[in-house]
Structures are given as structure tokens and as C-alpha cells.
Amino acid sequence: xxxxxxxxxxxxxxxxxxxxSSPPMVVIGSAIYYPRTFMGDIRQQLQLIFIDHRGFAxxxxxxxxxxxxxxxxxIEDMEPVRQTLGxx
Length: 88
What we know:
CATH topology: Rossmann fold
Radius of gyration: 13 Å
Number of helices: 2
Shape: elongated
Distance between the termini: 22 Å
CATH class: Alpha Beta
Order of helices and strands: EEEHEEH
Helix content: 10-25%
């Protein structure tokens, strides 16, 4: 069974899609495209949590130039999603 939702951050609406069994594994990128690329037995071995990053998300405020977005910024964006979903 697949569960989908959206988490609102100060800059974006980040979609997520969850499917599979435990233990959890977070895949950051596109919550729509990436689930199509993980096929087969992996979904029976892991609970896959696909989360949009701001490049795929709907903006809720002006976005910085994409050249200024670092890995640290993307990880910081994931914190509200992690908290909402209860991911440790």
C-alpha cells in the first residue's frame, strides 16, 4: 500500500510517497518520478520514503537562485518532512 501527502515548509510544498516495508530508506528527489524507478523486491526489503526537494516542489515564496542551493540547504528542507513523518 502506498501513502502520499504534502508537508509545507517556509518556502515549498514538499510531496512525499511512502511504500514498502521496514526498515525505512529516504530517497530525496521527486516523490512522483522516483517511485517508478525502484522496482521489484526492494519494496519488500525496505520502506521507501520518496520526498521532493525544492527543485521538484511547488514554491510558496521566492526561491533563491538555483546556483546557491547546496546539499546543506536541501537537507535543512527535509527536517520538517522528517519531523512530520516521524523519521529518526
